[in-house]
Amino acid sequence: MIQINSPRVLAYVCIICSIFLGLVDAIGKYRGLEFLESCSKTDPDLESCLERSVNALAEHFRNGLPQLGYPEVEPIILDELHIALGDGPNGYKAQFMDIHAKGVSSLKVTNLRARLSDDEVQLQLVLSIPKIRANAKYRSTGTLILVQASGAGDYWGNYEGVKAKIFIRAKPYDNQGLRFLRLQQLKMDFSVRDINMGVENVHDGNTILQAALNLFINSNGQELLREMKPDLRRKLVQVMTNFIEKIFSQVPYDAWIKG
């Protein structure tokens, strides 16, 4: 019979407990995110450290992070967007539905500014995305360049050179002996260098309408984006808020910032 008070057994028990607690800490505290670089508040290069850590997270997300509930991160799906050009009964209106966007996961943080205190964290990030490809269904009514443009079909768009600025304000809080962040505010703005988009499979095979729409939207891509931007920005803030809140609720503050 093995005696529990045997020094050897006690040593084995201590080793096993240490290993177990270490696994609990790694899985429960960092949830498989050991690649994150924990940055010290007193580090003079704190912002560079945080930028590396956020980029490491973005790079790993490209293949999904099941441990955070993201087996895959693309496509980004938006329910619908609207644009309106012109006033009156003949003004052109379009609705884009079931929007699927790919390429967002290739983002890279090119600049990060941080302001930290004991009761608040502020981050300002500049993101660069080489290319976003989007597909959607569309429905439109009204007149466009003297053509009756009421119809429906498929929309596609390629957006290259996307730049986004994001502002995050969060507050630390304690939960079961760990500190986490709670999102208080998120704002964003974005620009696109080059836009190439069009419609196809227009219902009833109206080739005149399809040609007119493609001519107009490719000649006025930035103007159309400007009209679409308020609605698109609001939708993206919703998606980003849900994403950041989920990350903050699962990854302890100490995984990002210590000291």
From TrEMBL:
Q: Which domain of life is it from?
A: Eukaryota
Q: Which SMART domains match?
A: JHBP (SM00700)
Pfam families from the UniProt entry: JHBP
Database matches in PANTHER family: PROTEIN TAKEOUT-LIKE PROTEIN
| Protein name stated in the entry | Protein takeout
